[in-house]
Write a structure and sequence with these properties.
With 292 residues, this protein is an alpha+beta fold. The protein contains ten helices and five strands. Strands 3-2-1-4-5 form a five-stranded antiparallel sheet. A hairpin with a 4-residue loop joins strand 4 and strand 5 (286-289).
C-alpha cells in the first residue's frame, strides 16, 4: 500500500475531523495520540526486555502499536494539510543527503584555466610566533609565501581561533569550495566576471567567514567535537541556508558534516602542536596533517 492511499483511508476513520485550522480539539487529539502511542510502543518493548521470549505476543503487539502510530501520523499530516507521501519522500532525501552516498563535486572549477583552478593537492604550513607581549600569532605559508595575514585569537581568552584557516582548507578539500582559499592562492575565476563577482567575491568570502565563526562557536560548546562523529542537524541546516545561493549549495548535508568533522580533527591537533603542515587533497576529499 502506498502512503497516499493509506492517508485517504485513515482519514475516513477519523472520529474528530477538523472543521478548520482553529479547531484545537481536532488538531490536538492526533498530536497527543502520537505521543501516547510512542509510550505504548516503549511499554511493549519494556515487557520484552523484562520477560524475554515468554512475551510470545511481542511482535504482534509491537506491530499493532506501530500501526497506531502510523494512523496518528497520517492524521496529523491530514489535519495540517500535508501529503504523507511527500513527507516521506522529503525525509528520505534528507536522510540520504546526510547519511547516504555523498556527492563527488571535487571542485567547482573543472572547466576553468589551470591558473584559476584550486590545486588538487597542496600543503600549507602553520607556525606560531609570539610578540613582545608573549601573545601567540599564527602565521601560515604556501610554498614559502605568506598564506594570509598573521592572526591572533582576537578574544580575551586564548581559544585557538587563530588557527581557524584550517576550516577554510577543510571546505576547499572536502567541498571543493572556499572563496577565501581561492583568493589566498590567487586562483579567482576572473575569466568569467560574473562567477568571479558572485562565487569568488566579497559577499561569498564574508559568508564563508561567517560559517567558520559559526561552527567554531558551536564547537566550543562541544569540546571542539573531540570524540564526536556527528554535528547537529540545526547547525548543518543553518550553514546550508547561509550558502544557499552559491555553487556550494550542490553539496549535501553529509558533505558539510564531513568537512566540519575533518576540520575540527586537524584544528585540534594543530592547536595542540602549535603548528604543522596541513595537506589538502581535493581528489580524496581529505584534510590531514603531514607527519615527520
Amino acid at each position: 500500500m502506498d502512503f497516499k492511499t493509506y492517508q485517504e483511508r485513515a482519514a475516513k476513520t477519523d472520529r474528530n475531523p477538523a472543521t478548520d485550522a482553529t479547531d484545537q480539539k481536532a488538531m490536538m487529539i492526533p498530536l497527543l495520540g502520537l505521543a501516547g502511542e510512542a509510550g505504548e510502543l516503549l511499554s511493549e518493548y519494556k515487557k520484552y526486555l523484562r520477560d524475554g521470549d515468554v512475551h510470545r505476543l511481542f511482535q504482534e503487539r509491537f506491530a499493532e502499536e506501530l500501526g497506531d502510530m502510523l494512523w496518528y501520523l497520517a492524521n496529523v499530516a491530514s489535519k495540517f494539510g500535508l501529503n504523507l507521501a511527500d513527507v516521506a519522500e522529503g525525509n528520505l532525501a534528507k536522510c540520504e543527503g546526510r547519511f547516504g552516498e555523498q556527492t563527488n563535486e571535487a571542485a567547482f572549477d573543472g572547466g576553468f584555466p589551470d591558473g584559476e583552478r584550486l590545486p588538487r593537492l597542496f600543503q600549507v604550513d602553520f607556525n606560531t610566533v609570539h610578540d613582545k607581549d608573549d601573545k601567540p600569532r599564527m602565521m601560515a605559508f604556501y610554498k614559502g609565501e605568506p598564506f594570509g595575514d598573521p592572526l591572533t585569537d582576537n578574544a580575551y581568552e586564548r581559544d585557538g581561533y587563530r588557527f581557524h584557516d584550517v576550516f577554510h582548507l577543510a571546505f576547499a578539500a572536502v567541498l571543493g569550495w572556499s572563496p577565501i582559499t581561492r583568493t589566498l592562492l590567487k586562483r579567482k575565476r576572473k575569466s568569467k566576471p560574473e562567477v568571479d563577482e558572485v562565487e569568488d567575491g566579497g559577499r561569498a568570502k564574508a559568508i564563508e567567514e561567517g560559517i567558520s565563526a559559526l561552527i567554531f562557536a558551536f564547537g566550543k560548546d562541544y569540546a571542539f567535537l573531540d570524540g564526536k562523529a556527528s554535528v547537529s542537524s540545526e547547525l548543518l541546516r543553518t550553514v546550508r541556508s547561509m550558502a544557499s545561493h552559491l555553487e556550494v549549495a550542490r553539496c549535501s548535508t553529509g558533505d558539510w558534516e564531513n568537512a566540519i568533522l575533518q576540520g575540527f580533527a586537524v584544528w585540534r591537533e594543530i592547536k595542540k602542536r602549535g603548528g604543522g603542515t596541513i595537506v589538502a587533497d581535493l581528489e580524496k576529499r581529505t584534510l590531514t596533517i603531514k607527519e615527520g
